[in-house]
Amino acid sequence: MKRPAALQERIFTRLFEQAEIARYTPEERLDYEDSLKVYRDMKNVLDTAELKGMKKGLEQGRLQGLKQGHEEGILDEKRKNAKTMKALGLPWETIAKVTGMSVAEIDKL
Question: DSSP code of 25?
Answer without folding.
Answer: -
